[in-house]
Amino acid sequence: MKKTIFITVFFLIVCHIGFSQSLDKTKLDTYFNTLEEHNKFMGSVAVSKNGEIIYSKSTGFADAENNIKATEKTKYRIGSISKSFTAVLVLKAAEVKKLDLDQTIDKWFPVITNAGKITVKQLLNHRSGIHNFTNDADYLSWSTQSKTEKELIEIIEKGGSDFEPDSKADYSNSNYVLLTYILEKTFDKTYAALVQEYIAKPIGLKDTYVFGKINTSDNECKSYKFMGSWKEEPETDFTVPLGAGAITSTPNDLTKFADALFDGKLLNDESLESMKTLKEGYGLGLFQIPFYNSIGYGHTGGIDGFSSVYSHFPEEKVSYALTSNGTNINNNDISIAVLSAVYNKPYEIPVFTRLELTSEDLDNYLGVYASEQIPLKITITKNENTLIAQGTGQPSFPLEATEKDKFKFDQAGAKFEFNTVENTMILFQGGGKIMFAKQ
Q: Which residues are in the Beta-lactamase-related domain (predicted)?
Protein backbone atom coordinates (compact mmCIF):
# COMPACT_ATOMS: atom_id res chain seq x y z
CA MET A 1 0.00 0.00 0.00
CA LYS A 2 2.65 2.48 1.02
CA LYS A 3 4.00 5.18 -1.28
CA THR A 4 7.70 5.92 -1.60
CA ILE A 5 9.86 8.09 -3.85
CA PHE A 6 12.38 5.29 -4.20
CA ILE A 7 11.76 1.97 -5.92
CA THR A 8 13.98 -0.99 -5.10
CA VAL A 9 14.21 -4.20 -7.09
CA PHE A 10 13.55 -7.50 -5.36
CA PHE A 11 16.03 -10.20 -5.85
CA LEU A 12 18.51 -11.24 -8.23
CA ILE A 13 21.02 -13.60 -9.73
CA VAL A 14 21.26 -16.53 -12.12
CA CYS A 15 23.70 -19.42 -11.66
CA HIS A 16 23.84 -22.91 -10.21
CA ILE A 17 22.10 -23.35 -6.88
CA GLY A 18 21.86 -26.18 -4.40
CA PHE A 19 19.66 -26.61 -1.37
CA SER A 20 21.49 -26.68 1.96
CA GLN A 21 21.05 -29.91 3.87
CA SER A 22 22.34 -28.37 7.10
CA LEU A 23 21.17 -24.81 7.64
CA ASP A 24 23.65 -22.83 9.74
CA LYS A 25 21.17 -21.39 12.21
CA THR A 26 23.92 -19.99 14.44
CA LYS A 27 25.26 -17.78 11.65
CA LEU A 28 21.76 -16.59 10.74
CA ASP A 29 21.07 -15.79 14.40
CA THR A 30 24.30 -13.78 14.48
CA TYR A 31 23.21 -11.94 11.33
CA PHE A 32 19.91 -10.88 12.90
CA ASN A 33 21.50 -10.06 16.26
CA THR A 34 23.87 -7.73 14.42
CA LEU A 35 20.97 -5.96 12.73
CA GLU A 36 19.23 -5.58 16.08
CA GLU A 37 22.31 -4.21 17.83
CA HIS A 38 22.62 -1.45 15.23
CA ASN A 39 18.88 -0.58 15.04
CA LYS A 40 18.65 -1.84 11.47
CA PHE A 41 15.67 -4.18 11.64
CA MET A 42 12.72 -5.11 13.83
CA GLY A 43 10.63 -8.03 12.70
CA SER A 44 10.36 -11.77 12.15
CA VAL A 45 11.27 -14.31 9.47
CA ALA A 46 10.37 -17.94 8.83
CA VAL A 47 11.41 -20.59 6.32
CA SER A 48 9.63 -23.87 5.65
CA LYS A 49 10.76 -26.93 3.70
CA ASN A 50 8.21 -29.57 2.69
CA GLY A 51 5.67 -27.82 4.89
CA GLU A 52 7.80 -27.83 8.05
CA ILE A 53 9.41 -24.75 9.61
CA ILE A 54 13.20 -25.12 9.44
CA TYR A 55 14.14 -21.64 10.67
CA SER A 56 12.40 -18.76 12.44
CA LYS A 57 13.71 -15.65 14.15
CA SER A 58 12.23 -12.55 15.77
CA THR A 59 14.11 -9.40 16.65
CA GLY A 60 13.44 -5.93 18.00
CA PHE A 61 10.34 -4.63 19.74
CA ALA A 62 6.67 -5.28 19.19
CA ASP A 63 6.01 -2.27 21.41
CA ALA A 64 9.11 -0.09 21.82
CA GLU A 65 7.47 2.34 24.26
CA ASN A 66 6.79 -0.48 26.72
CA ASN A 67 9.92 -2.54 25.95
CA ILE A 68 7.87 -5.51 24.70
CA LYS A 69 10.11 -7.71 22.57
CA ALA A 70 8.93 -9.38 19.38
CA THR A 71 8.44 -13.15 19.52
CA GLU A 72 7.28 -15.90 17.19
CA LYS A 73 3.71 -15.01 18.28
CA THR A 74 4.01 -11.34 17.26
CA LYS A 75 1.55 -10.37 14.53
CA TYR A 76 2.30 -7.81 11.80
CA ARG A 77 0.28 -5.93 9.23
CA ILE A 78 1.34 -7.41 5.89
CA GLY A 79 0.15 -4.69 3.51
CA SER A 80 -0.07 -5.72 -0.12
CA ILE A 81 0.60 -9.39 0.56
CA SER A 82 -3.15 -9.21 1.26
CA LYS A 83 -3.60 -9.07 -2.53
CA SER A 84 -2.60 -12.74 -2.78
CA PHE A 85 -5.41 -13.60 -0.37
CA THR A 86 -7.87 -11.46 -2.32
CA ALA A 87 -6.86 -13.08 -5.60
CA VAL A 88 -7.43 -16.52 -4.08
CA LEU A 89 -10.93 -15.48 -3.01
CA VAL A 90 -11.77 -14.10 -6.46
CA LEU A 91 -10.53 -17.25 -8.19
CA LYS A 92 -12.44 -19.39 -5.69
CA ALA A 93 -15.56 -17.43 -6.60
CA ALA A 94 -14.85 -18.13 -10.26
CA GLU A 95 -14.37 -21.85 -9.55
CA VAL A 96 -17.81 -22.08 -7.95
CA LYS A 97 -19.35 -20.05 -10.80
CA LYS A 98 -20.21 -17.04 -8.67
CA LEU A 99 -17.94 -14.78 -10.74
CA ASP A 100 -16.77 -14.61 -14.34
CA LEU A 101 -13.25 -13.20 -14.63
CA ASP A 102 -14.09 -11.78 -18.06
CA GLN A 103 -17.13 -9.91 -16.77
CA THR A 104 -16.87 -6.13 -16.92
CA ILE A 105 -17.21 -4.16 -13.70
CA ASP A 106 -19.94 -1.72 -14.79
CA LYS A 107 -22.42 -4.06 -13.09
CA TRP A 108 -21.00 -2.97 -9.74
CA PHE A 109 -19.33 0.37 -10.45
CA PRO A 110 -21.02 2.19 -13.35
CA VAL A 111 -19.46 5.51 -12.28
CA ILE A 112 -15.87 4.28 -12.70
CA THR A 113 -14.21 5.53 -15.89
CA ASN A 114 -14.12 2.75 -18.54
CA ALA A 115 -16.13 0.41 -16.28
CA GLY A 116 -17.77 -1.11 -19.36
CA LYS A 117 -14.35 -2.09 -20.72
CA ILE A 118 -12.59 -3.20 -17.52
CA THR A 119 -12.86 -6.87 -16.54
CA VAL A 120 -12.47 -8.55 -13.18
CA LYS A 121 -9.29 -10.19 -14.44
CA GLN A 122 -7.84 -6.81 -15.41
CA LEU A 123 -8.33 -5.67 -11.84
CA LEU A 124 -6.44 -8.75 -10.67
CA ASN A 125 -3.38 -8.22 -12.90
CA HIS A 126 -3.30 -4.40 -12.75
CA ARG A 127 -4.32 -3.83 -16.37
CA SER A 128 -7.46 -1.76 -15.68
CA GLY A 129 -5.95 1.71 -16.05
CA ILE A 130 -7.74 2.80 -12.87
CA HIS A 131 -5.66 5.43 -11.09
CA ASN A 132 -3.93 4.32 -7.89
CA PHE A 133 -5.41 6.46 -5.11
CA THR A 134 -2.45 5.86 -2.78
CA ASN A 135 -0.32 7.86 -5.23
CA ASP A 136 -2.31 11.02 -4.56
CA ALA A 137 -0.55 13.78 -2.66
CA ASP A 138 -3.28 13.97 -0.02
CA TYR A 139 -3.52 10.21 0.64
CA LEU A 140 -1.50 10.21 3.86
CA SER A 141 -3.66 13.04 5.23
CA TRP A 142 -6.77 10.83 5.36
CA SER A 143 -5.54 7.22 5.35
CA THR A 144 -5.95 6.94 9.13
CA GLN A 145 -9.64 7.84 8.89
CA SER A 146 -12.48 5.35 8.40
CA LYS A 147 -13.98 5.40 4.90
CA THR A 148 -17.29 4.01 3.69
CA GLU A 149 -17.63 2.16 0.40
CA LYS A 150 -19.37 5.21 -1.07
CA GLU A 151 -16.54 7.51 0.00
CA LEU A 152 -13.78 5.29 -1.37
CA ILE A 153 -15.54 4.73 -4.69
CA GLU A 154 -15.91 8.50 -5.02
CA ILE A 155 -12.17 8.88 -4.43
CA ILE A 156 -11.40 6.20 -7.03
CA GLU A 157 -13.91 7.69 -9.48
CA LYS A 158 -12.30 11.12 -9.08
CA GLY A 159 -8.87 9.63 -9.87
CA GLY A 160 -10.11 8.56 -13.28
CA SER A 161 -8.11 6.45 -15.73
CA ASP A 162 -4.37 6.54 -16.38
CA PHE A 163 -4.48 4.44 -19.57
CA GLU A 164 -6.82 2.45 -21.79
CA PRO A 165 -7.81 -0.88 -20.18
CA ASP A 166 -5.50 -3.80 -21.09
CA SER A 167 -3.13 -1.55 -23.05
CA LYS A 168 -0.44 -2.00 -20.39
CA ALA A 169 0.05 -2.85 -16.71
CA ASP A 170 0.54 -0.46 -13.81
CA TYR A 171 0.22 -1.30 -10.11
CA SER A 172 -2.89 0.16 -8.50
CA ASN A 173 -4.30 -0.46 -5.04
CA SER A 174 -7.63 0.83 -6.35
CA ASN A 175 -8.03 -2.43 -8.29
CA TYR A 176 -8.00 -4.58 -5.17
CA VAL A 177 -10.25 -2.27 -3.17
CA LEU A 178 -12.83 -2.67 -5.92
CA LEU A 179 -12.28 -6.46 -5.92
CA THR A 180 -13.05 -6.42 -2.19
CA TYR A 181 -16.42 -4.82 -2.81
CA ILE A 182 -17.14 -7.26 -5.65
CA LEU A 183 -16.41 -10.19 -3.33
CA GLU A 184 -18.59 -8.82 -0.56
CA LYS A 185 -21.51 -8.27 -2.95
CA THR A 186 -21.02 -11.68 -4.60
CA PHE A 187 -20.97 -13.68 -1.35
CA ASP A 188 -23.07 -11.26 0.73
CA LYS A 189 -20.41 -11.48 3.44
CA THR A 190 -17.68 -9.18 4.70
CA TYR A 191 -14.16 -9.49 3.34
CA ALA A 192 -12.98 -10.37 6.85
CA ALA A 193 -15.47 -13.26 7.01
CA LEU A 194 -14.44 -14.53 3.58
CA VAL A 195 -10.75 -14.60 4.53
CA GLN A 196 -11.62 -16.75 7.52
CA GLU A 197 -14.10 -19.07 5.76
CA TYR A 198 -12.16 -19.83 2.58
CA ILE A 199 -8.51 -19.43 3.63
CA ALA A 200 -7.62 -19.07 7.30
CA LYS A 201 -9.81 -21.78 8.85
CA PRO A 202 -9.43 -24.49 6.16
CA ILE A 203 -5.61 -24.43 6.35
CA GLY A 204 -5.21 -23.51 10.02
CA LEU A 205 -3.99 -19.92 9.94
CA LYS A 206 -4.62 -18.96 13.56
CA ASP A 207 -2.93 -15.56 13.43
CA THR A 208 -4.20 -14.27 10.08
CA TYR A 209 -7.19 -11.93 9.82
CA VAL A 210 -8.35 -8.49 8.73
CA PHE A 211 -6.98 -6.00 11.22
CA GLY A 212 -8.72 -3.36 13.31
CA LYS A 213 -7.10 -0.97 15.76
CA ILE A 214 -3.72 -2.32 16.87
CA ASN A 215 -4.11 -4.33 20.09
CA THR A 216 -0.71 -5.00 21.66
CA SER A 217 -2.28 -7.20 24.35
CA ASP A 218 -3.21 -9.62 21.53
CA ASN A 219 0.39 -9.84 20.27
CA GLU A 220 -0.22 -7.23 17.56
CA CYS A 221 2.79 -4.97 17.13
CA LYS A 222 3.04 -1.27 16.44
CA SER A 223 5.12 0.01 13.52
CA TYR A 224 8.03 2.41 13.59
CA LYS A 225 10.33 4.63 11.58
CA PHE A 226 13.94 5.08 12.66
CA MET A 227 14.67 8.78 13.21
CA GLY A 228 17.73 8.46 15.41
CA SER A 229 15.52 6.23 17.56
CA TRP A 230 12.40 4.22 16.81
CA LYS A 231 9.39 6.55 16.40
CA GLU A 232 5.85 5.15 16.26
CA GLU A 233 4.04 5.45 12.92
CA PRO A 234 0.33 6.31 12.43
CA GLU A 235 -2.16 3.48 11.80
CA THR A 236 -3.96 3.20 8.47
CA ASP A 237 -7.64 2.44 9.05
CA PHE A 238 -8.57 -1.01 7.70
CA THR A 239 -11.53 0.41 5.72
CA VAL A 240 -9.04 2.11 3.40
CA PRO A 241 -6.83 -0.77 2.11
CA LEU A 242 -9.34 -3.63 2.52
CA GLY A 243 -8.33 -6.45 0.15
CA ALA A 244 -5.40 -4.39 -1.10
CA GLY A 245 -3.64 -4.40 2.25
CA ALA A 246 -5.71 -4.89 5.40
CA ILE A 247 -4.53 -8.28 6.68
CA THR A 248 -2.49 -9.05 9.79
CA SER A 249 -0.38 -12.23 9.91
CA THR A 250 2.90 -13.84 10.97
CA PRO A 251 5.77 -15.34 8.94
CA ASN A 252 4.80 -18.83 10.12
CA ASP A 253 1.25 -18.33 8.85
CA LEU A 254 2.49 -16.87 5.57
CA THR A 255 4.70 -19.86 4.87
CA LYS A 256 1.75 -22.09 5.69
CA PHE A 257 -0.42 -20.06 3.29
CA ALA A 258 2.20 -20.36 0.53
CA ASP A 259 2.61 -24.10 1.09
CA ALA A 260 -1.15 -24.66 1.00
CA LEU A 261 -1.65 -22.52 -2.10
CA PHE A 262 1.01 -24.36 -4.10
CA ASP A 263 -0.06 -27.75 -2.75
CA GLY A 264 -3.51 -27.22 -4.28
CA LYS A 265 -5.32 -26.92 -0.95
CA LEU A 266 -6.92 -23.55 -1.77
CA LEU A 267 -7.46 -23.58 -5.55
CA ASN A 268 -7.52 -26.07 -8.38
CA ASP A 269 -4.57 -26.45 -10.74
CA GLU A 270 -6.07 -24.24 -13.45
CA SER A 271 -6.67 -21.36 -11.04
CA LEU A 272 -3.20 -21.64 -9.54
CA GLU A 273 -1.65 -21.65 -13.00
CA SER A 274 -3.56 -18.47 -13.85
CA MET A 275 -2.19 -16.79 -10.70
CA LYS A 276 1.37 -17.68 -11.77
CA THR A 277 0.95 -16.58 -15.40
CA LEU A 278 2.66 -13.22 -15.84
CA LYS A 279 1.79 -10.46 -18.26
CA GLU A 280 4.23 -7.54 -18.18
CA GLY A 281 5.45 -8.74 -14.79
CA TYR A 282 2.09 -9.19 -13.08
CA GLY A 283 0.27 -12.41 -12.30
CA LEU A 284 -3.02 -12.58 -10.42
CA GLY A 285 -2.00 -11.49 -6.92
CA LEU A 286 1.51 -12.87 -7.48
CA PHE A 287 4.88 -11.69 -8.74
CA GLN A 288 7.72 -13.90 -9.90
CA ILE A 289 10.62 -13.77 -7.42
CA PRO A 290 13.84 -15.36 -8.71
CA PHE A 291 16.75 -16.34 -6.51
CA TYR A 292 19.73 -17.46 -8.55
CA ASN A 293 18.20 -19.95 -11.03
CA SER A 294 15.31 -20.91 -8.74
CA ILE A 295 11.96 -19.28 -9.48
CA GLY A 296 9.67 -18.31 -6.63
CA TYR A 297 6.21 -16.75 -6.58
CA GLY A 298 4.90 -14.37 -3.97
CA HIS A 299 4.26 -10.74 -3.11
CA THR A 300 5.70 -7.84 -1.16
CA GLY A 301 3.86 -5.51 1.21
CA GLY A 302 4.21 -2.15 2.90
CA ILE A 303 1.80 -0.17 5.05
CA ASP A 304 2.66 2.54 7.59
CA GLY A 305 6.01 1.41 9.07
CA PHE A 306 5.36 -2.26 8.25
CA SER A 307 7.06 -4.07 5.36
CA SER A 308 6.86 -7.70 4.32
CA VAL A 309 7.52 -10.31 1.66
CA TYR A 310 6.69 -13.95 1.09
CA SER A 311 7.71 -16.34 -1.64
CA HIS A 312 7.27 -20.01 -2.50
CA PHE A 313 9.82 -21.94 -4.57
CA PRO A 314 7.84 -24.88 -5.99
CA GLU A 315 10.77 -26.94 -7.24
CA GLU A 316 12.41 -27.15 -3.81
CA LYS A 317 9.12 -26.83 -1.85
CA VAL A 318 10.62 -23.98 0.13
CA SER A 319 8.55 -21.07 1.46
CA TYR A 320 10.01 -17.90 2.95
CA ALA A 321 8.38 -14.97 4.73
CA LEU A 322 9.59 -11.77 6.35
CA THR A 323 7.45 -9.33 8.32
CA SER A 324 8.84 -6.11 9.73
CA ASN A 325 7.49 -3.33 11.93
CA GLY A 326 10.58 -1.17 11.61
CA THR A 327 13.49 -1.18 9.19
CA ASN A 328 16.57 0.97 8.71
CA ILE A 329 18.04 -1.19 5.97
CA ASN A 330 16.98 -2.55 2.59
CA ASN A 331 14.93 -5.62 3.52
CA ASN A 332 15.91 -7.18 0.21
CA ASP A 333 19.40 -7.63 1.66
CA ILE A 334 17.88 -9.56 4.56
CA SER A 335 15.91 -11.80 2.22
CA ILE A 336 19.06 -12.52 0.23
CA ALA A 337 20.95 -13.44 3.40
CA VAL A 338 18.25 -15.82 4.63
CA LEU A 339 17.80 -17.52 1.27
CA SER A 340 21.55 -17.72 0.83
CA ALA A 341 21.71 -19.67 4.09
CA VAL A 342 18.85 -21.90 2.96
CA TYR A 343 20.37 -22.56 -0.46
CA ASN A 344 23.96 -22.90 0.73
CA LYS A 345 25.23 -19.71 -0.93
CA PRO A 346 27.77 -17.32 0.66
CA TYR A 347 26.68 -14.24 2.58
CA GLU A 348 28.41 -11.95 5.06
CA ILE A 349 27.57 -10.68 8.52
CA PRO A 350 27.28 -6.92 7.90
CA VAL A 351 29.62 -4.42 9.48
CA PHE A 352 28.04 -1.05 10.26
CA THR A 353 30.03 2.13 10.62
CA ARG A 354 28.47 5.49 11.37
CA LEU A 355 29.95 8.98 11.42
CA GLU A 356 28.67 10.79 14.50
CA LEU A 357 27.66 14.41 13.85
CA THR A 358 26.32 17.09 16.15
CA SER A 359 23.13 19.00 15.50
CA GLU A 360 25.22 22.02 14.59
CA ASP A 361 27.18 20.01 12.01
CA LEU A 362 23.94 19.33 10.14
CA ASP A 363 23.02 22.98 9.70
CA ASN A 364 25.22 23.21 6.58
CA TYR A 365 22.96 20.79 4.71
CA LEU A 366 19.51 22.15 5.56
CA GLY A 367 17.28 23.55 2.82
CA VAL A 368 15.12 22.73 -0.18
CA TYR A 369 16.87 21.14 -3.15
CA ALA A 370 15.49 21.06 -6.70
CA SER A 371 16.65 19.25 -9.83
CA GLU A 372 16.35 19.95 -13.54
CA GLN A 373 16.42 16.20 -14.18
CA ILE A 374 13.27 15.21 -12.29
CA PRO A 375 10.17 17.15 -11.10
CA LEU A 376 10.83 16.45 -7.43
CA LYS A 377 12.07 18.66 -4.66
CA ILE A 378 13.79 17.22 -1.60
CA THR A 379 13.62 19.12 1.67
CA ILE A 380 16.46 18.49 4.11
CA THR A 381 15.74 19.13 7.80
CA LYS A 382 17.07 17.70 11.05
CA ASN A 383 15.81 15.98 14.18
CA GLU A 384 18.41 16.54 16.89
CA ASN A 385 21.57 14.97 15.39
CA THR A 386 19.82 13.09 12.55
CA LEU A 387 19.46 14.54 9.05
CA ILE A 388 15.98 14.11 7.57
CA ALA A 389 15.01 14.07 3.87
CA GLN A 390 11.53 14.40 2.42
CA GLY A 391 10.44 14.38 -1.22
CA THR A 392 7.51 16.49 -2.32
CA GLY A 393 4.28 14.89 -1.07
CA GLN A 394 6.17 11.93 0.40
CA PRO A 395 6.95 10.61 3.90
CA SER A 396 10.21 11.78 5.47
CA PHE A 397 13.13 9.43 6.06
CA PRO A 398 16.41 9.63 8.03
CA LEU A 399 19.85 9.89 6.47
CA GLU A 400 22.85 8.18 8.03
CA ALA A 401 26.21 9.94 7.85
CA THR A 402 28.99 7.75 6.42
CA GLU A 403 31.74 10.27 5.58
CA LYS A 404 32.10 14.04 5.53
CA ASP A 405 29.24 15.42 3.40
CA LYS A 406 28.06 11.90 2.53
CA PHE A 407 24.88 10.20 3.76
CA LYS A 408 22.86 7.11 2.90
CA PHE A 409 19.37 5.65 3.20
CA ASP A 410 19.90 1.89 3.13
CA GLN A 411 16.21 1.03 2.97
CA ALA A 412 16.09 2.33 -0.62
CA GLY A 413 19.74 1.88 -1.57
CA ALA A 414 20.13 5.66 -1.90
CA LYS A 415 23.22 7.78 -1.26
CA PHE A 416 23.41 11.56 -0.91
CA GLU A 417 26.53 13.67 -1.42
CA PHE A 418 26.50 17.37 -0.51
CA ASN A 419 28.76 20.20 -1.67
CA THR A 420 28.27 22.90 0.95
CA VAL A 421 30.36 25.44 -0.98
CA GLU A 422 28.34 25.17 -4.18
CA ASN A 423 25.06 24.43 -2.33
CA THR A 424 24.43 21.28 -4.36
CA MET A 425 23.43 17.71 -3.60
CA ILE A 426 23.80 14.53 -5.67
CA LEU A 427 21.44 11.58 -5.27
CA PHE A 428 22.91 8.21 -6.27
CA GLN A 429 20.48 5.33 -6.66
CA GLY A 430 20.12 2.26 -8.85
CA GLY A 431 23.14 3.23 -10.93
CA GLY A 432 21.66 6.69 -11.56
CA LYS A 433 22.98 10.11 -10.60
CA ILE A 434 20.65 13.08 -10.08
CA MET A 435 21.94 16.59 -9.44
CA PHE A 436 20.12 18.95 -7.08
CA ALA A 437 20.74 22.59 -6.21
CA LYS A 438 19.66 24.37 -3.05
CA GLN A 439 16.97 26.96 -3.71
A: 43-331
